[in-house]
Amino acid sequence: MEERQIHVVEIKAPVADVWAEITKLKQIQKPMFGTVLETDFKPGSRMIYKSEDGKRVFIIGEVHEFVPPKRFVHTFRFTNLPETPTLVEWTLEEKGGVTRVTVVHSKFVDQKKTADSVRTSWVDILGNIKAMVETGNVPFKTRMMLGMMSAFMFMAPKDTLRQNIPELKEKK
Amino acid sequence: MSHEDLDHVWRALANPHRRRILDVLRDKPCTTGEVAAALGENRFLVMQHLNLLREADLVTVEVDGRRRINHLNPVPIQHIYERWVGKYQGDWAAALVGLKRTVEARSAKNETRRLKRA
């Protein structure tokens, strides 16, 4: 059976606030390991999670669905892994002031490294989104990690440099 | 995360049968029947335990045609961890960064001294 990873979190906030954090552009998304999302959200368009200075791209994909404030579906490929794209589906539902966020990560055929990496990452990301929306910041541990990641950014694999990413070399 | 939210999680975890169910689901998502078979337990009992785990959001169900697949959702466990352990882990990370700086500063100083001597 094709692997499907499902992660759920309940956030005590209106769906609009959660949606705003997940789809925030131009500013860093602390829960997403301090990356900046870049896309126009049109189905078929490119979407990337990049470093704050824009020199590195960590995740690249294509928008499949964008239905505010409920659903965001896109393909997902780590630029530093030689693996084919997988699929991420964000679904948000609000009930009585509580927003339930479900992330389904699927289309794992043989992308073992991606699967192993995101299995733990989604737990952190969803916990961090909850903390960010409910308290205005990510937990101390994450802030520490973001600081260390930006300090060691120069050591990140060369595959993450914008000019080395195959998808960005094609004209589109 | 408030205490009430975590109450559900603690209650769900405070039972050896339910913890074994989570162990089974950690290996791979399963139907209720598969969980019962893996544990050699009564299907009805497993179903009751699964309901409690779902209420605590430790298990999420996905419908796949006629099959209902149970998935482990470790996010609430992470909240418990974050609340009691994460803070100390942060201190530990801070201490490591401090150590790195000290060691690097020291080796830089040694290097300067060596160069001066040469």
Topology:
The complex is a heterodimer of chains A (172) and B (118).
Chain A: E1 3-11, H1 15-22, E2 36-39, E3 46-50, E4 57-67, E5 71-78, E6 86-95, E7 98-108, H2 112-135, H3 140-151, H4 166-169
Antiparallel strand pairs in A: 1-7, 2-3, 3-4, 4-5, 5-6, 6-7
Helix pairs in contact in A: 1-2
Chain B: H1 3-13, H2 16-27, E1 30-31, H3 32-39, H4 43-55, E2 59-64, E3 67-72, H5 75-117
Antiparallel strand pairs in B: 1-3, 2-3
Structure description:
The complex is a heterodimer of chains A (172) and B (118). Chain A has 172 residues and is of the alpha+beta class. Chain A has four helices and seven strands; from the N terminus they run βαββββββααα. In chain A, strands 1-7-6-5-4-3-2 form a seven-stranded antiparallel beta sheet, with helices on one face. In chain A, strand 5 and strand 6 form a beta hairpin. The model of chain A has no long low-confidence stretch (mean pLDDT 93). By secondary structure, chain B is mostly helical. In chain B, 74% of the residues lie in helices and 12% in strands. Chain B has a three-stranded antiparallel beta sheet. In chain B, a hairpin with a 2-residue loop joins strand 2 and strand 3. In chain B, helix 3 packs across helix 4. Chain B is elongated and about 80 Å long. Chain B starts with a helix and ends with a helix.
**Mean pLDDT of chain B, rounded to whole units?**
85
Q: Helical proportion of chain A?
A: 25-40%
Most extensive chain contact? A-B, 25 and 20 residues
The secondary structure category of chain A is alpha+beta
- Gyration radius of chain B, rounded: 24 Å
Largest sheet of chain B: 3 strands, antiparallel
Mean of residue pLDDT of chain A?
A: 93
Low-pLDDT ranges of chain B: none
Compact summary:
The complex is a heterodimer of chains A (172) and B (118). By secondary structure, chain A is of the alpha+beta class.
Name a few traits of the molecule.
heterodimer, A: 172 residues, alpha+beta, 7-stranded antiparallel beta sheet, 4 helices, 7 strands, B: 118 residues, mainly alpha, 3-stranded antiparallel beta sheet, 5 helices, 74% helix, elongated
